[in-house]
Amino acid sequence: METQHDTAHRTGELIVTVTDADGTPRAGTEVVVEQRRHEFGFGNIGFDFIGLANGEHDPDDVGTPELADLWLDVFNTATLPFYWGRFEPERGRPDTERLQRTAAWFRDRGVATKGHPLVWHTVQPDWLLGLDTDEVERLQRDRIRREVRDFTGLVDTWDAINEVVIMPHFANGDNGITPLALARGRLAMIRMAVDEARVTNPSVTLLLNDFDLSDAYECLIEGVLEAGIGIDAIGLQTHMHQGYWGEDTMLAMVDRFARYGRPLHLTETSLVSGDLMPAHIVDLNDHQVDSWPSTPEGEARQADELERHYRSLVGHPAVEAITYWGITDRGAWLNAPIGLVRADGTPKPSYDALRRLVKDEWWTGPTTVRTDDSGRARLRGFRGEYTVRAGSAESTVTIGRDAPTAVRLTAD
Known about the structure:
Elements: E1 11-19, E2 30-38, E3 41-45, H1 50-53, H2 65-72, E4 77-81, H3 84-87, H4 96-107, E5 112-116, H5 133-150, E6 157-162, H6 177-184, H7 186-200, E7 205-210, H8 215-226, E8 233-240, H9 247-258, E9 264-271, H10 296-314, E10 319-324, H11 349-361, E11 367-370, E12 376-382, E13 384-390, E14 393-399, E15 405-410
Parallel strand pairs: 1-15, 3-4, 3-10, 4-5, 5-6, 6-7, 7-8, 8-9, 9-10
Antiparallel strand pairs: 1-12, 2-11, 2-13, 13-14
Helix pairs in contact: 5-6, 5-7, 6-7, 9-10, 10-11
């Protein structure tokens, strides 16, 4: 397969018209156009910054202001943790206010947020155990409606349901959701998650998300679409602790799921900057080590692979977002060196590589254009939010996918 690196499809056209107060076109006027935000979702988890967002001064907290600055300089989408067992460990006492403040903290910094997840069989509250399936279903439905309602306007994108392929037969620990999924079936679980969220917030964006990228997931998606269940995007997890899959394998996988006509979100991506996890490990969670250091050789490899990974996926028109699973090695999943920043707070080469792509190569910096005799100036730029200025006149516009974006400014 030929890899796709072209990003022309990520750009759009802006037409600026500058006039006098009486509507006379202003020829030869300088117009400054500057990008503020990407349309493409360059995401990372925001778990580390809950304490910072809530003013909790713990000296051992991972989420320092310095780490936040590194995070905010690259990413525009944060995934926030709504694992039921941690969000509501004591029945009736959800951690709503802290997560609301965290979502608002990101929003105030121009970052969109996604909740992860509304339904999952892992990290479940112990107080569900022993309840009958009807009661578990009622509580799960209530939980979906409560979170979507309480976070409307703060979190309007959700992983509606996570890892459904394995859900009815998950055997790695008792939980209240696996028996419900076995009794009701996968499609009924997905319909429950989607319908309850949608009725609560009709404008919500809902993902079906899974790590199982086999034909079992394809069959599930086909069943969802045939049943008329309204998922908005397909989530694809790509944790690569055992080594980068390579562009050809990744793009072949993306092509398989692109045929369903829904945007694709690479919801959980990771690449290791140390020794790779042994290839014989089936469940990544089974590889538990006390120390898993980042190495200079591994960091060079991670930077190269990360750049290739992002170039190929941003070059694919079906991909709408990529979320990297962690900014730092401190407290990283499985204690693995998958962060873009070392445990001591210094950026790895992979951080620099990604920032260069997102903020230099795929970014329209301050650009000056001059109006023609009709008072118009044109510019092509990466789709997203822009500030447009002519003299003291200023406007915020969005360059979109289809028709050119037109803006009119009245100059001094």
